[in-house]
Amino acid sequence: MTNSSHDLAGLRVAPGRLPIRLLVLAVSFALTACGAIGPSWDDSKRTVRTTVRGTRDYINPTPKIDVNRYSWENPNQEKLALLFSPVDAKVTELMRYVTSQDFRPNDAWMNYLMMRFSWIDGVLVADANGDILERRPPVPLKRFSEPLVFESIWRETLVKTVVDYTALGPEVYFGMPNYEGTEFVGLHVVSFDPRVLFTFCPKPEELYIVDPHAHKLWTAGTNVPPEAEALTAITWDKVLLEKSQGTIESGGKQFTWLARYIGRDRFIYATESANATFQDKGLQLIPFFGSSK
Is the residue at 133 inside a domain? Predict the structure, then answer.
C-alpha cells in the first residue's frame, strides 16, 4: 500500500496524523468543557449562594431597632411631655368628635358621645336665641353660676371656650355652631370638670393647668404649693403674644410650660423644671411632637 498525503489548508499531512495546532485546540476544548478552565462548580455554587443571600436580605431584611434614635436633650421638656401628653390626647380626641359635624346633632350622635367620652359631664343643644332644646343629662350636677355667653369668630370652627367657676368647682364648655345651609340655627356644647383630666396623667400631683384668662389654677389635689399658685399672677396674655412654650420663674422656682388648646382657646400646662440649670434652647420636637433627630 502506498502512502498518500492530503493537503489541509495548505499543510501537507501524512495519513493517520493530525496537525499539531489542531491537536492542541482539541485538547483545550476538552479541558474547558470539563471546567478546568473558567469557573468551577464550586465557584458557581458560591455565586448562586451569594446572590440568593443578597436577594433575601433585600426582600426580607433583618429588623434592627435603634433605641437611641428618639431621645430627649432637654430634661425639662421630657418631664412635661410625659405628664401632659396623655391628658392632651383625651382633649384632642373630644375636640375632633365635637367638630365632626356643623349641623344639629341627633340622638345617636349624643348617645355615642356620652358612651365614648364617659368622663365628660354632659352635652346641650341650643337654638339661635340661646334657648336650650335638649340636654344630657336633663338635670346637670353643676348649674350655671350665671348666664353663659358663647361667642363665635368668623371662619373659626369652634365657639370660644367658656369656663364657669361654680360652687362645686370649674366647668369647661366648648362647642360647635349649627347651620342649615348657610343659616345659623344654634350650637351644641359639651362640658366637663377640668380636674378630671388629671386622672389621665401618670403623676397628677406634678402637673398644673393654668386658666390664663381667669387667672385660675387647676390641680389634682387641694394642697397646692405657693410657687405653683403664683403661676396665676403671671400676665399670660403678654407672654403668649411672643411664645407658646418655655420656662418661667414663679415663686422662686422655675417651671416648664406649654400652651395647648382646650376647645377654642389656649390653656397652660406647667410643671416644676426637672433641671433648673439647663439652658433652654427652644422647643425640642421629639418624641411626642412627631420629629426625630
Answer: yes
